[in-house]
Amino acid sequence: MDPATRRRVVAASFIGNFVEWFDYAVYGYLAVTITAVFFPESDPQTGLMLTFGLFAISFFVRPLGGFVWGHLGDRIGRRTALSWSILLMSLATFCIALIPSYAVIGVWAPLTLLALRVVQGFSASGEYAGASAFLVEYAPANRRGLYAAVVPASTATGLLLGSLVAALLSATLDPQQMSDWGWRLPFLLAAPMGLIGRYIRTRLEDTPAFRELEHEDESAKAPVGSLFRNHWRKLVQAAGAVLLNAVGFYVILSYMPTYLSREIGLEETASFLATTVALLTYVGFIFVTGMLSDRFGRKRVLISASIAFIILTGPAFLALGTGSFAVIVLVQILLGAMLTLNDGTLPSFLAEMFPTRVRYSGFAVSFNLANAVFGGTAPLVATWLIASTGSDLAPGWYLMAAAVVSLVAVAMSAETSRSELRHH
């Protein structure tokens, strides 16, 4: 593969997840403002739970999206599925910026927000899996982990830009300006970014591995059916392995600014800044993890991530409770580094688990199912656990439980890094 094609493959895989997680980041980081706009008649705690409830509901359509986009990606090609998914996702995100407030149209405001988040969740469900399969099938055999690490790096970069934009808005606008129009600005950026991503993707050929299938007997006319008949054990193992990513990503990198400002009492701008520093280090660590997984194997790195969370999460959340900005930044860097051991390895691990004919479907179904049940609900569950137990440490317990499940799932799985993609 020539360098120009390699750059386009990386860019095409990067931008879709970047747009998706930029939207999620802005929604999470501006949750307090969005609550005031769409649920002004609720008390702050209930309104915040309703806002995160909409965030969670949009994830419940992700398994359906995983089936649809996975089927399309395995039947008609990775490139085609990814080109359409980014267009639909960007349009839904852009339209969120245009919704009138509750004060203008009443209950139709949160209902419209819910409808657009459902469309966004459905369309985004093919992005992570499709981009990972795309990169792994283009990558040299000994660098699949490094190439696939581009996908979580793109999600973190989207979160990073979302954090920076939210911090800038909160620092320069007063609360009334934020409620009136400031919160809408980030969502407007989705349209041009999505069009750029679609343009790049349509100018690429499909992956070499998928093109090989076009010359073979298409015995699997329904890839999802074949997936459940012949690969259900791998599907269960994959969903279990995703659990730490699902909970950890949204608790540590999306919910954390709200947690720091509402539960710990850190000033809002400082909360955004602490998360921004953690995201910067996360992006750097993620590529190191990809290289480590190529050298030492996927299982070793994933098991190390689970063990680290089981041992260190409790002390980390205790340290967050000190309220010291320097300590909070260091703890977030530590949690982010621990998370990269999982996140930087998971895309190549999941893509390698399934044969080419069902790779997109297997990845998309397992990844989106775990994220629908445990990822999108993580901010809501964390808020509910704190309210129910009265303990600021409750999100840490949730993280530790997810790490235990992932540890068992990965331990029961086969090592994938040394196998040929077509015959694994």
UniProtKB/TrEMBL annotation:
Annotated Gene3D superfamilies:
MFS general substrate transporter like domains
Residue ranges annotated for the Major facilitator superfamily (MFS) profile domain, each copy included = 9-418
Location, primary (coarse class): membrane
Q: What membrane topology does the UniProt entry give? A: Multi-pass membrane protein
Tagged with keyword Coiled coil: no
Where does the record say this protein resides?
Cell membrane
- Keywords linked to the UniProt accession: Cell membrane, Membrane, Symport, Transmembrane, Transmembrane helix, Transport
Q: Which InterPro entries match?
A: H+-coupled_symporters, MFS, MFS_dom, MFS_trans_sf, Sugar_transporter_CS
Membrane-spanning parts: 21-40, 46-69, 81-99, 145-169, 181-200, 235-257, 269-289, 301-318, 324-341, 362-385, 397-414
Q: Identify its protein family.
A: Belongs to the major facilitator superfamily. Metabolite:H+ Symporter (MHS) family (TC 2.A.1.6) family.
Protein name, please?
Answer: Proline/betaine transporter
Q: What is the lineage of its organism?
A: Bacteria, Bacillati, Actinomycetota, Actinomycetes, Micrococcales
Gene coding for it: proP
